[in-house]
Amino acid sequence: MTATGSNEWEVVIGLEIHAQLATKSKIFSGSATAYGAPPNTQASLVDLAYPGVLPVLNAEAVRMAVKFGLSINAEVARRSVFARKNYFYPDLPKGYQISQYELPVVKQGKLAVMLDDGAVKTIGVTRAHLEEDAGKSLHEGLGAASGIDLNRAGTPLLEIVSEPDMRSAKEAVAYMKKIHTLVRYLEICDGNMQEGSFRCDANVSVRPRGREKFGTRAEIKNLNSFRFVEKAINHEVSRQIDLLESGGTVVQETRLYDSDKDETRSMRSKEEANDYRYFPDPDLLPVEIDEAFIDAVRATLPELPDDKAARFARDFSLSAYDAGVLSASRELGAYFEAVVAGLSAPHEEAGKASQEAGAAQRNAAHAKLAANWVMGELSSALNRDSVDIAVSRIAPAQLSGLLARIVDQTISGKIAKEVFEAMWSEGKTADAVIEAKGLKQITDSSAIEGVIDAVIAANPKQLADYRSGKDKLFGFFVGQAMKATGGKANPAQLNELLKRKLGGGPQDA
Questions:
Q1: What is the pLDDT of residues 379-432, one digit of tens each?
Q2: First to last CA, the chain
Q3: Is 68 helix (H, G, I), strand (E, B) or coil?
Q4: Distance between CA 419 and CA 422 in Å, rounded?
């Protein structure tokens, strides 16, 4: 048995993702939604459910929901209805949640997800509906008491419900990451998982392989990291298979994931829809959306992740993988394009008709070089120091300047990494670092030949062994020559000259 099942069992997963919408006020009141305010300072009489107060729908929340629906080619309902979902919420004073049930604002969409092996799988999106968030119960530092913070109560959520189309924890994570990317591209959710603005519930079941009927599912609540989603699903799959193979029965229930123990545990029996006693909210009119509103929202759609990835692959001759990584966020894609533009700018005149083929090859090479550095050194530095790319210590123009010195052979790729670290820590340009540290590459053939002659003269045994057929010693001579030049010799020139010297040509010492 593996974490995603066995040959006898098939895993079935559906996700319910809760994206907190980036409105400035709550969905049914004018209270602010800013994160981190002192407890209960952002709760109006509507949020506190005082008698006689009435909810007023936030039009911006509707616009954001429609924007999401259009981005996944879903059906946007011309008429949707808010309902009361009755349940005991200790942190939602009115005792019910205003949500959407039978008539959601968005339904029947789909999303293409690239898996680890490069395969693309389409995941169905059953619905995306608007609802209000609950408050937060606090338990730490209060002794035997519990505190209630209602700042979050009434914050607008878009609940995105998938079809049960995923067959492994990795597929579920890939889908969740794609939704995370999409809502940030659309600027409808900041995607901050630590602050709870992007989280999910995972519905997990197993069934004998080949059977059509679904098994009994368990719902794992409030997962707020991609790593926890994968670990929780894998544990739950193993738990259910072990239970079934030992003759037990899976019960429908809600479970919580304990990351410290890496296990799920029962929370309560799973409610059905009729347990919530849904009925249309009498205080809210049905939401009527016309074509003009939808067209206006459609006009605000940015270039979406899949479209950007396709353009990067087409225009920059990048692999599908590279294009996908570089389009994972709007900020990363914009940074990459700025680096390429800065690197290509000095050669724009070379793009004239007589040199178009050469220009295309050069631009592709520049784009690949930029892609490697943005995905490599830059991303490593950002992750290492927990710096967002929007405030990177090295601006796109500065990285272009560094890569230009590789292209014109002022420095080697290896030395460029040393220059990059100095730029990152000192805030200097590449040219300033190269000049201050004396890192310019040696490209004078006669100077390189002199070093090679000295290395050969100092290693007669290795020379004899190489010429007797021990070809691997070529690397030894390269290393010795590079050491002698402090790593500054042009690698291509060094290799070419060394081959000639070692091979017994007319220029041999």
A1: 999 999 999 999 999 999 999 999 999 998 888 888 899 999 999 999 999 999
A2: 65
A3: helix
A4: 5
Tokens of 343: 């690197």
Helices (H) and strands (E) in the chain, counts: 16, 16
**What three-state secondary structure class fits 100?**
strand
Both tokens of 484, joined, read 């002698």
Residue 156 near residue 190, CB atoms below 8 Å? no
**What is the Cα–Cα distance from 382 to 388, expressed in whole angstroms?**
6
114-171: per-residue pLDDT in tens? 888 888 899 999 999 999 999 988 888 888 888 899 999 999 999 999 999 999 999 9
Token code pair at residue 265: 């545990």
For the beta carbon of residue 298, count every other beta carbon within 10 angstroms: 13
141/139 Cα distance (integer angstroms):
7
Which residue blocks in 186-319 are alpha helix, DSSP H?
Answer: 226-245, 291-298, 305-316
Q: Mapped to the 3 state alphabet, what secondary structure does 101-155 carry? A: CCCCCEEEEEEEEECCCCCEEEEEEEEEEEEECCCEEECCCCCCCCEEECCCCCC
Q: Could you tell me which residues come within 8 angstroms of residue 320 by beta carbon, excluding any fewer than 6 positions away?
A: 114, 118, 309, 313
User: 187: left (phi > 0), else alpha (psi -120 to 50), else beta?
Assistant: left
pTM of the model: 0.82
Report how far residue 485's alpha carbon sits from residue 285's, in angstroms, rounded to the nearest whole number: 78
Query: 11 in helix, strand or coil?
Result: strand
- Cβ atoms of 14 and 203 within 8 Å: the answer is yes
* Residue environment code for 127-162, b if the CB has 16+ CB neighbours within 10 A, otherwise e: bbbbbbbbbeeeeeeeeeeeebbbbbbbbbbbbbbb
**Taking a C-beta distance cutoff of 8 angstroms, is the pair 356, 308 a contact?**
no
